[in-house]
Amino acid sequence: MSTNRFRQPSINGEVQTPSPEELELLKAYAYMPETDKLIKAIELDKVAPNKTSALINSLDWNKIDRNQRLLALREAARIGCVDILAYLIDHRVELGIDLNGHYVAPIPRIKLADHPHLDRASLHALLTPVPLDSALTEAAKEGHLDCVKLLIDNGADVNHRLSTADYTPLVAAAGYNPLLSTAATIKKHEDVVNYLLSHGADCNSIVSYDSYAALTPLKLAVQNHLPNAVTLLLAGATTDEFVMSRLAAKASDPYAQLCLGIIMERNIIRAKDQLEQLLIESKRLYDMSTLTHQQSQAPGLPSEEAAKQQEISKAQWSASQQRFEYVASCYVTALTHYQNASLAGLPEATHRYRDLREHCPIPTSVLARRGVTAPMEDPIPSVTNENRLFAASAESRGQKHERDVTSPHEEKRHHR
């Protein structure tokens, strides 16, 4: 990046005389207004940088209003002209450029007689100036990471937009559709998404207008580019029915499997703070059911009261099994999704599979019967209360387990 080829902009002063070489280059553009010269300079920067330098250095900035200067900032970011963008940023104070500003397109010239079918509201909308996306949003949309960095480093707001109907930079980058793009272009957009998230972009920003209610970066990503969906999920993006339906429809894609695994693991993580309490509560319920069973056999206790306590005990035991079974199903489902994505060759899935498996409280034998292979030893080989609950849950579905564990109510029947 070099801005040395551009001279200081002339503001409220004399315009510097172009050099003979620049005059020769400028002959073809002598007829152009200053605003058109500025936009032409940006368009030529990647194919004829010498002409761009000549045009920029010959500009009379007094003849270019602030709205047109914002247009230049936006166009430089959109096309990826880093040198011109840096030049405009460096001189933004004297040029009166707001990095978060929005170029307002002029009202189109139309004859109302040519549009008799339009009602008053439609005419009003047609004749109302509409601010276009900011420079940062344009740079993010086109995948120009160097321009994104330059704008953010100089104070551009990473979450800026005028209203909820506008795209944020992250929505623009995450919603990129790579259908007709090269691998290099796709990688650029992925890098922009990562950079924006690392600098505070809101992964749950919502765009709402017309039929696009509650459009989010994640919704666009699962629709257009699943690797971006993985990044957003890891950053904490929230899911909804639309996201889950799209992932289910793309279940054959290993990135969809990775996304589903992350979502299921997040269900575990949300409950992880409660997991310790869940195990304590499960043991309390188990002990209570045992105590209730013993009390039901105590002499002098009315038969109706004994039956009532037995029913409560059974309900508590069933509830504890169901609660722990949910955690088990989350682990199994997450591990299965990671396993599928890992077999398809995604290193991130392999890493997450091994990490989750290492900290999984479910016995290896239970996982194996449910189709989850164990690349390492069972991290909890000892007999604990959760083993007992899983065993009882397995037996309730008619499955075998190496330990013969029964509920207190089954023990009561055995004693009889």
3D structure, described in words:
- By secondary structure, the protein is mostly helical.
- The chain has a domain at 254-415.
- Helices cover 60% and strands 2% of the residues.
- The protein contains 20 helices and 2 strands.
- It has a two-stranded antiparallel sheet with strand order 1-2.
- The termini are far apart.
- Residues 374-416 have low confidence and may be disordered.
Feature tags:
416 residues; mainly alpha; two-stranded antiparallel sheet; 20 helices
Instruction: Strand order, main sheet: write it out.
Output: 1-2
Structural class: mainly alpha
Query: Would you list the SSEs in sequence order as H and E?
Result: HHHHHHHHHHHEEHHHHHHHHH
- Helix count from the secondary structure assignment: 20
* Count of beta strands: 2
**Measured on Cα atoms, how large is the radius of gyration?**
33 Å
Largest sheet, in brief, is: 2 strands, antiparallel
For the record, give the distance between the C-alpha atoms at the N and C termini, rounded to a whole number. 87 Å
Shape: elongated
Walk me through the topology.
Layout: H1 20-26, H2 34-44, H3 49-58, H4 66-79, H5 82-90, H6 92-95, H7 120-126, H8 135-142, H9 145-153, H10 169-174, H11 183-198, E1 207-209, E2 212-215, H12 217-224, H13 226-234, H14 241-249, H15 254-296, H16 303-343, H17 347-358, H18 364-369, H19 385-396, H20 408-415
Antiparallel strand pairs: 1-2
Helix pairs in contact: 1-3, 2-3, 2-4, 4-5, 4-8, 5-9, 8-9, 11-13, 12-13, 12-14, 13-15, 15-16, 16-17, 16-19
